[in-house]
Design brief:
The chain has helices at residues 2-17, 24-33, 132-149, 155-173; strands at 36-56, 60-80, 89-92, 95-100, 103-109, 116-117, 178-183, 188-189. The protein is of the alpha/beta class. Strands 1, 2, 5, 6 and 8 form a 5-stranded mixed beta sheet that branches. The longest helix is centred in the C-terminal third of the chain and has 19 residues, at 155-173. It is elongated, with a radius of gyration of 24 Å.
Length: 200
């Protein structure tokens, strides 16, 4: 609802000054104040697994401990209106054209509260034991794997379609007969998080 109200106020403002080319800077400034607008939420299930092996020398396996857990990552995606330029909105009579910024991951969370260890599968070997520190490493690697694969999970396509549908309905309700919406790219913008310390 907040998303629709913000977009509505922006479009009304653009319409009011669309005939005054010199006011485009003011319009874009107002749009930038709307900042980041979330349109889609995803929940990603992730099985976390790991092993810890005790060996005699290089080849003889004495014992192996296994760890299995279930986890969830929560991703919110949308667009950052601060990246909208003055030439990205064009209004001509009953037609409107929008060029929206690339889809961004606006929020990523991997809450420990959703971690569930499978004790029916996880077990310690007689000579090897998985510690709390080992578990933290397994979860860290799982989070890194999720982040590295977000681009391939359909987030861009789904968020683009949902954003396009919402804006089309809204703009037509404002009287625009022809609505054209495109995105500047099909990339997914993700803030990089240093999950692995770089070697000196």
């Amino acid at each position: 609802m907040v998303f629709l109200l913000r977009i509505l106020s922006v479009i009304v403002l653009v319409t009011a000054v669309s005939c005054q080319r010199d006011n485009r800077g003011l319009v874009v400034g107002k749009i930038h104040k709307a900042s980041k607008l979330a349109t889609t939420e995803f929940t990603i299930d992730k099985i976390v697994h790991g092993t810890k092996t005790k060996k005699l020398g290089w080849f003889i396996k004495l014992s192996e401990a296994r760890f299995i857990a279930y986890s969830k990552a929560k991703v919110t995606s949308g667009i950052n209106l601060q990246n909208l330029g003055k030439d990205d909105i064009v209004i001509e009579d009953q037609s409107i054209f929008l060029r929206l910024p690339a889809i961004e991951v606006l929020n990523f969370s991997y809450p420990p509260a959703d971690f569930l260890i499978d004790n029916t599968i996880s077990d310690n070997g007689w000579a090897s034991k998985i510690t709390v520190f080992d578990q933290e490493e397994f979860f860290r690697q799982a989070e890194l794997d999720i982040r590295n694969n977000l681009q391939h999970m359909g987030i861009v396509e789904t968020t683009q379609q949902k954003t396009r549908n919402m804006l089309t309905v809204l703009l037509r309700s404002l009287g625009y007969e022809e609505v054209y919406i495109e995105f500047e790219s099909n990339d997914l913008i993700i803030d990089k998080v240093p999950l692995i310390e770089e070697e000196a």
